[in-house]
Amino acid sequence: MSAFEQNRDPILAVLKEVMSAEDTRVFEVGSGTGEHAVYFAKNLKNVVWTTSDVLTKCGDIRSLLDASKLPNVRGPMPYEIGKDDFPRYSYDLVFTANTFHIMGWKQCKSLIKTLGARLREGSQVAIYGPFNYNGTYTCESNAIFDKIIKERDPQSGIRAFEDVNAAMLKNGFALFKDFEMPANNRMLVYTRLVFMKE
Ligand SMILES: C[S@@+](CC[C@H](N)C(=O)[O-])C[C@H]1O[C@@H](n2cnc3c(N)ncnc32)[C@H](O)[C@@H]1O
């Protein structure tokens, strides 16, 4: 079973739990192949799911979206954190899966800062992937995986939940829930708080 086949239904269940009927506009960062987008759009018919990724990935996503013939998938928008501007539309939820350990920490912080600046009060952010807690890996397979991705790119690496959480809080979000997911992954769901004057 592929990672996508293993995680799609548990992620869908969390999305259904945290999204209300009025939450219809989703923006996905780092859509990869577009498989998540197609699966979730098929199963969340009231949602318009907008995909994005770095420009070089957009061709493959486009092919998958076209083949799906779904009326409620959009994009892909070329969106590379640290390079492209975040789209100037309103979104109820921003979803990203398996990106925080691939991008550098600088890009992760840049995305969080952008989300804090662009999302309105009550919008949500859902971050799926592996995280470390209390300075340690949650399992041996995550430690091995971390070594592999760092060998591929020294900027990659499993992030500390505490660092992500601190950056989210600093940028105006509150942790709604840290969901336990299959294969030692987590789904961190945050809510944008009211804008405060500095
Ligand atoms: C491991 S893949 C995950 C793909 C998909 N979300 C999934 O869970 O299968 C990581 C994705 O992050 C994207 N990515 C890496 N750096 C990025 C950046 N600076 N801005 C936006 N996306 C980025 C990659 O292009 C890739 O599609």
Explain this structure to me?
By secondary structure, this protein is of the alpha/beta class. The protein has one domain: Vaccinia Virus protein VP39 (Rossmann fold). It has 6 helices and 9 strands. It has helices spanning 3-18, 35-43, 55-68, 105-118, 140-152, 161-170, and strands at 25-29, 48-53, 73-78, 93-97, 124-129, 131-132, 159-160, 173-181, 185-192. The longest helix is centred in the first third of the chain and has 16 residues, at 3-18. The structure holds S-adenosylmethionine. The site of S-adenosylmethionine (SAM) has 19 residues, from loops.
* Strand percentage: 15-25%
**Are there runs of 5+ residues with pLDDT below 50, and where?**
none
Bound molecules: S-adenosylmethionine
Terminal-residue CA separation? 49 Å
Morphology:
globular
Number of E-type strands: 9
Distinct helical segment count: 6
Summarize the structure.
The protein is an alpha/beta fold and 198 residues long. 38% of the residues lie in helices and 25% in strands.
Which SSEs are present, and which pair or pack?
Layout: H1 3-18, E1 25-29, H2 35-43, E2 48-53, H3 55-68, E3 73-78, E4 93-97, H4 105-118, E5 124-129, E6 131-132, H5 140-152, E7 159-160, H6 161-170, E8 173-181, E9 185-192
Parallel strand pairs: 1-2, 1-4, 2-3, 4-5, 6-7
Antiparallel strand pairs: 5-9, 8-9
Bound molecules: S-adenosylmethionine.
S-adenosylmethionine binds at residues 4, 29-32, 36, 53-54, 57, 79-82, 97-99, 102-103, 107.
